[in-house]
Each structure stands twice: as C-alpha cells, then as structure tokens.
Amino acid sequence: MTGLCAIPLRDMPLVDETTDVAQEICAAIDRAGEVLGDGDVIVLAQKIVSKNEGRLVALAAVNVGEEASRIAQQTAREPAMVQLILNESRELLRTTPAAIIARHHTGHVLANAGIDASNVEGGDAGTVLLWPKDPDASARAIRSKIAAISGARPAIVIADSMGRAWRIGTAGTAIGCAGLTVVEDKRGTGRDLFGRVLQATQIAVADSVAAMAALAMGEGDEGTPVALVRGAERWVSAEDGPGAETGVRPIEQDMFR
C-alpha cells in the first residue's frame, strides 16, 4: 500500500425507495472516469441507505407511551422523538436535555439512537430518519448488487457521524460493513520499532476508512453521500465477513457503566 485516498462521487441523485442505489453508484464511478476494482472500498452515508429502505417516520404518527412521556417531561424533548428512541434501542444509558445516549439494537452506543432530521426532506415539519434495521445486511446486499453490475467486488462501508466519549465533535463511523476488516488485531503478532511484541494494539480499520471518507463527502449541503476509497486493498476480502458489529465492544467490557 502506497497511500490512501477518498474520491467523493458527485452528481448522485436524491435517493428514495425507488432508487437503485448500486446502479447509481456504478454510474457515478463511470462519470468520475474511474474503474472499479476488487480492492476498492465504497463508503455510503447512512442516510441514503435508510431513505432507500423506507426508514422515514412522521413524528405526528408515533404512538407515545408512558415511559416516553415521562422521559420527555424530564428532558424537555419531543415525546414522539423519545418514543422512537426507545423503539430503536436496547437500553437508554443517559437521558439529558442535550441528548439521550442509547444503545441501539445493533449494539452501537450513540446519541438519540441515530435518529436525525438533517438532510431529510420534511425534517422541518417533523419527519425523521431511522437507521437501517440491519446495516451489515444492507452492506452485503449493496455489495452483491454492485458486483453483479460491474463485475468487481469492492468492500462496502455504511457510515454515520457519531460522537466519541471524552472528545468534542463527531467522526464518521462504520455502522455496516461487508468485505472489509473491521478491526485488525495485532496483539501478540505485530512488533514495534524496537522489536517488542505488541500487547494492546487493535486498529479500527473500518472506522478509520469511514472517518476519512466522511471528510471527503462532507456533512452539510455538499450532496456527495458516497465516496470511493483507494489504497486499502490489504484489508479487503472476497468474503463479506461478520460485519461492523464485530467492532462494538462487548457489554461485559464496558468500562463506563
């Protein structure tokens, strides 16, 4: 590997349930003058996958229960939004006016269970977007379709911007993955410059690729929800692998509970 680069794919159409996302990605790669290869990684913003899977919800249509009403009163938040967070979560870890920190059904811990109204048509009128039900399955399906169209089998990462404990700001994070090493474990095998065997080093490969691609794609009105990442061939596999869920720290190892 000589270097990593992320190429934002421009002129992608707005996505809805009728969009063939894989076909549009391949068309955007063609327009960019690029040839897709097996060692490439395609990173997609979570929002276009969610929109394609029909995960839009109108807050006005949500039935609010007693628990959601109680939390909403304590946190001065919209009761319907709290109910959706409860619906999408295994548990709530913190409930504050600033954010509700939830453990999503996928195992990821993040603010408001990933529910968001930014870059969502109708967001100002109370329409919000949920995460894909199974982001790893979504990544595998997109990878299969792209392979059928292009003949190449690049890795797929579905990324969302997430906060990090003790750090300000968000970074692109892999919530769905197919064909890419999620965590490279170098404990007991790698060595440092002085020949010492590495004891604790585990590299968050998929998250690092997602973060780099998110910077290239942008977080606002850039309109580039997909990026082509090159230079990560060493971590790309023909097999889909178990997915991004393997990058989630098991609850029994959670040091902040």
Can you walk me through this structure?
This protein has 257 residues and is α+β, with helices and mostly antiparallel strands. It has two domains: 5-54 and 132-248, 60s Ribosomal Protein L30, Chain: A (2-Layer Sandwich), CATH 3.30.1330.100; 56-129, Alpha-Beta Complex (CofE-like fold), CATH 3.90.1660. It contains six helices and twelve strands. It has helices at 21-31, 46-52, 66-75, 79-87, 135-150, 205-217; strands at residues 5-8, 41-45, 56-58, 89-95, 100-104, 109-111, 127-129, 155-163, 170-178, 184-185, 202-203, 226-230. A five-stranded mixed β-sheet has the order 1-12-2-8-9. It has a three-stranded antiparallel β-sheet with strand order 4-5-6, covered by helices on one side. Strands 3-7 form a two-stranded antiparallel sheet. A hairpin with a 4-residue loop joins strand 4 and strand 5. The longest helix has 16 residues, at 135-150.
